[in-house]
# Entry
Amino acid sequence: MTESTPTTDPHDLAREAAARLAELTGVERHDVALVLGSGWLPAVDAIAEHAGAEAVVEIETTDLPGFSPAAVVGHSGKIRSIRAGDRSLLVFLSRTHFYEGKGVAAVVHGVRTAAAAGCRAIVLTNGCGGLKETWSPGTPVLISDHINLTGRSPIEGAHFVDLTDLYSPRLRALCREVDPSLDEGVYVQFPGPHYETPAEIGMVRAMGGHLVGMSTALEAIAAREAGMEVLGISLVTNLAAGISGEPLDHAEVLEAGRAAASRMGELLGRVVPRV
Ligand code: 8IG
# Structure
């Protein structure tokens, strides 16, 4: 192992973060967590609007124990607490990625904090590459399952967590009630930060993958370990390497998010309060 072992147990650190979160937001327990991935940030105001938000409090992630500053343009290191109806939503406007090299515990600290804050369900979103040519940039796709190619787990020790139906069939059905046009696919988490080669995308296709990205799978595993119900939604922001013949570009990712923001906001705003 090249990374250093944390001195504090990650679950204890998450409980400390949740206690500080409750103090800073004035909200004792949250119900549903939402993690916004690349391209999803422009949707955040539309989410609050469609969810019928009554009160919004925003804090900096770095004000909570265990979080480090956001590293990517288009990711904002903030957490919003949104009161909508009888629910309190906890929205992470950024995440820590595996490729930052801070270790797997840092990657899943937000998920564990959400669980410690009371969340029973979590919506993990991401921007990703798509392998189906019919998924034009800006297409949302429900994650039906994943393949974790990081070679790592957020769980340590002999704790054999079942991952059958990790991506809740109930929550996927709920999404399709809101938007019957939603497709599904298997998400493949690569370590990144480089994108794939065309040959690797050929491997993904052969393995049964449909979406490629650098997040979500490790977080989903930690969420399941913590007993949360998981909904995963990818925003296809680019065709995967070698499919269109064009090189991949981070600016393209941000633009696809801006263009899809109102559709994503409406989808999440209508789904999250029913989760
Ligand atoms: I946005 O094509 C986004 N993130 N691995 N591959 C991987 N991650 C991504 C991609 C992609 N697009």
